[in-house]
Design brief:
15% of the residues lie in helices and 43% in strands. By secondary structure, the chain is of the alpha+beta class.
Length: 286
């Protein structure tokens, strides 16, 4: 009897540890935290780009540049700097500083070219997400930690998972987007995650590729189990490391679509860039 209980405990422990490892890993991939630094910037005619289609069918296109430095120092978890390169917000830049102390509020700086000043601001979602971030993306890239939610293993099964691509047609850059729906047939772990505190969603369902720990699809629901948001991700591989370079989201409440696409040639990892680059002075000298 003792051996039976010991075996049950051991199996349970291994499953829980296994699930936690999966969650930690896909959080790492989504946040790009497995790199010392990573940049997305123009290379030739290739740009990192955000495209949004509004409910009236109008399409908005925006080029951007982003530079992330992880494990910045003993207190700062990372600094994330971006510059908007086109559209009505061209010239605007910003930097988000995240701290290891989860109770320390992230620091948001915004460079305003019209007055040539750097200003400290509140939550960037109150400022239209700098034109780049939507609600789910800010949590995915920056704010949400894996222990901010309760996670429940739902199933492991072989799925013909389709990665949606969006239907953008009018923008100058839309012709360069991957356009075909791709099907990735593989074993997937289905995980249900519920926030431990009040949030804009009640639960989310993640489909994580079994062998790679890549979160390919996420569905967000409200308290009435109504679908709020669908997110699809694709990844590229550079130097044997996976990098999310395509993210397509559908906002089912506001009937909008958004694509963030970073062509492979725009991605630079672990370069010899001094930490001083991630500073107020860089924003001020745009």
């Amino acid at each position: 009897m003792y051996k039976l209980f010991a075996l049950i405990f051991l199996v349970s422990f291994e499953l829980n540890s296994f699930d936690l490892n999966i969650i930690e890993k896909y959080f790492e991939y989504n946040k790009y935290s497995h790199f010392k630094n990573i940049s997305f910037e123009k290379n030739g005619n290739s740009y990192p780009v955000v495209l949004q289609k509004n409910s009236d069918g109008r399409e908005i296109e925006l080029f951007f540049e982003r530079h992330l430095y992880n494990e910045f120092d003993l207190n700062i978890e990372n600094r994330d700097m971006f510059f908007i390169k086109s559209g009505a917000l061209k010239g605007v830049g910003g930097m988000i500083t995240m701290f290891y102390n989860r109770y320390e509020t992230p620091k948001y700086l915004l460079w305003l070219p019209a007055i040539r000043k750097v200003r400290s601001i509140g939550n960037p979602l109150d400022h239209n997400g700098f034109g780049i971030l939507d609600k789910s993306l800010l949590f995915e890239l920056k704010l949400r930690k894996y222990d901010d939610e309760n996670h429940r293993f739902v199933s492991e099964q072989y799925i013909d998972l389709e990665i949606e691509r969006g239907s953008f047609t009018t923008g100058k850059y839309s012709k360069n987007l991957p356009s075909e729906v791709i099907k990735i047939s593989d074993k997937y772990i289905e995980i249900e995650s519920t926030p431990k505190y009040e949030n804009w969603y009640k639960k989310r369902i993640s489909y994580v590729q079994r062998d790679t720990n890549l979160e390919r699809k996420t569905l967000y629901f409200n308290e009435n189990n109504k679908l709020l948001l669908s997110v699809y991700r694709d990844f590229t591989e550079i130097n044997n490391e996976f990098i999310m370079n395509y993210r397509y989201s559908i906002d089912h409440v506001n009937n909008t679509e958004r694509v963030i696409f970073m062509p492979v040639k725009t991605i630079k990892i672990n370069r010899d860039i001094p930490k001083s680059f991630w500073s107020d002075s860089t924003l001020e000298n745009l």
